[in-house]
Design brief:
The structure is a single chain. By secondary structure, the chain is mainly α. It has one domain. About 40% of the residues lie in helices and about 0% in strands. The protein starts with 8 loop residues before the first helix and ends in an 11-residue tail after the last helix.
Length: about 70
């Protein structure tokens, strides 16, 4: 059964869908981007050597993250 065609909870339970936490999904998406050597945070400029590596490590480690700053 195609995940896109599932309409009910019963269909979801019968399918091979496996629940993933948000942390796990973020981690797996980041790993895919890193393997493909894609920009992990497009549109974020000026933090490539400071903030971005720290955020990547935190996501890979499944840490809780709280972003503070000015608007």
């Amino acid at each position: 059964m195609n995940i896109q065609n599932i309409k009910t909870l019963g269909e979801l339970k019968k399918s091979s869908y496996q629940h993933r936490s948000i942390k796990e999904e973020l981690r797996q998406n980041l790993i895919l981007k890193l393997k493909r050597k894609k920009n992990t945070f497009p549109g974020i400029l000026g933090y490539e050597d400071s903030v971005v590596p720290d955020v990547e490590r935190a996501l890979l480690s499944k840490h809780n993250i709280l972003f503070l700053g000015l608007r």
